[in-house]
Amino acid sequence: MKKSLTLLLLFACLLACKNEVKSSPEKGIVTEEDLLDPSNKDLETIKEQSIAELKTKLVKDGYQVFDYVDEKTKDTTLMQQYFIAFLKRGPIRNQNEEEANRLQSEHLAHLGKMYELGYADISGPFGDDGDIRGITIYNVPTLKMADSLANADPMVKAGRLIIEVHPWWAAKGFPLR
């Protein structure tokens, strides 16, 4: 009897929970069903509000942004200005192997710190042995800030690398493919 009552109570709780998960736009609850339903207008409104809020925050924080409207699909994409730092071969490359290895470790630590602090979105070397050794994409509001962060790199301070920074526009939040 006790076991049956416990099972009945458990079943009632599960049913009650299942009914609470329904979409409720006025309460701001979005379910998995809502996400999978392409005709859900409430979800589209939530996305638009989120993008508008993001755009407002970016502008408030000093970032340059604009809306790009695709002529074919009429989709609007939020574009943001980033800064690409080209890390180029510097004039002082006569460090011994031990010093070069130490500088490389400090360089990688610096780039890791930039990523952890949210200043850099991606960094990496080029696959050839040209004068441009690699890039870092800085997600900061100004060229001055990107230049300052890039020039704080120990490899740059030692003269092994020099920096060339350029503004670059990309769609906010789009992943690499």
Detailed description of the structure:
It is a single chain. With 177 residues, the chain is of the alpha+beta class. 44% of the residues lie in helices and 24% in strands. It has 6 helices and 5 strands; from the N terminus they run H-H-H-E-E-H-E-E-H-H-E. Strands 1, 2, 3, 4 and 5 form a 5-stranded antiparallel β-sheet that branches. The longest helix is centred in the N-terminal third of the chain and has 20 residues. The protein is elongated. The termini are far apart. The N terminus is likely disordered.
Keywords:
single chain, 177 residues, alpha+beta, five-stranded antiparallel beta sheet, 6 helices, elongated, disordered N terminus
Q: Determine the structural class based on helices, strands and strand pairing.
A: alpha+beta
Q: Roughly what percent helix?
A: 40-55%
Q: State mean pLDDT (0 to 100 scale).
A: 81
CA(first)-CA(last) distance: 59 Å
Overall form: elongated
- What is the count of helical runs? 6
Biggest sheet layout: 5 strands, antiparallel
Q: Flag low-confidence runs.
A: 1-28
Number of strand segments: 5
Write down the secondary-structure element order. Answer: HHHEEHEEHHE
Tell me the fraction of residues in β-strands, as a range. 15-25%
Q: Whole-number radius of gyration?
A: 25 Å
Q: How is this structure best summarized?
A:
By secondary structure, the protein is of the alpha+beta class. It is built from 6 helices and 5 strands; from the N terminus they run αααββαββααβ. The relative contact order is 0.15.
List the helices and strands and how they pair.
Blueprint: H1 2-20, H2 32-36, H3 41-60, E1 65-69, E2 76-89, H4 97-116, E3 120-125, E4 132-138, H5 143-151, H6 154-157, E5 161-171
Antiparallel strand pairs: 1-2, 2-4, 2-5, 3-4
